[in-house]
Design goal:
The protein is 36% helix and 15% strand. The chain is an alpha/beta fold and 148 residues long. It has a two-stranded parallel sheet with strand order 1-6. A two-stranded parallel ribbon has the order 2-5.
Length: 148
């Protein structure tokens, strides 16, 4: 077997942080320094194919894009892209996302070197730009005004 450890998947129908943000339910945890490791759904499929073709039996590969990003930087980018305010900050202990609170920068170097995979969406910026455009074209991008 070849094992792929897949990061937070986003893309059509996926993306916890984007969904929370669009519903005005997102919260920046503490100073926003929590690291988010993500990968676009299409790149997950590409990594699977690359692993089937080139993976070495018994090896583990991290399926994650090229740029782990802090939660604050992600929301700053998203706020600028959508013309919205940043989500409010709350103490990390009160964030209550229900998601594991790891804070590791995961590398995809082994996956790229050994499997030869080239990402369609190398960072969250390319992936979310495409996803926001797709949502807009499909009439799925509803930006709710913040209650201030």
């Amino acid at each position: 077997a070849v094992i792929l450890r897949v990061a937070g998947i986003y893309g059509p129908g996926r993306g916890y942080w984007l969904k929370q943000y669009l519903k005005n339910e997102a919260r920046i945890e503490g100073a926003g320094d929590r690291v988010l490791n993500m990968i676009h759904r299409e790149d997950v499929a590409g990594c699977i194919v690359a692993a089937l073709r080139n993976g070495r039996r018994g090896e583990v590969y991290n399926a994650v894009d090229d740029e782990p990003v802090t939660q604050l930087h992600y929301f700053q980018w998203l706020a600028a892209a959508l013309g919205k305010w940043l989500p409010p900050s709350v103490p990390a202990s009160e964030a209550g996302s229900g998601r594991p609170r790891n804070n590791k920068r995961i590398s995809n170097r082994k996956l790229k070197m050994e499997l030869g995979y080239r990402f369609k969406y190398p960072t969250f910026r390319e992936g979310y730009t495409a996803e926001l455009a797709r949502m807009e074209a499909a009439g799925e991008l509803e930006i709710k005004p913040e209650a201030r």
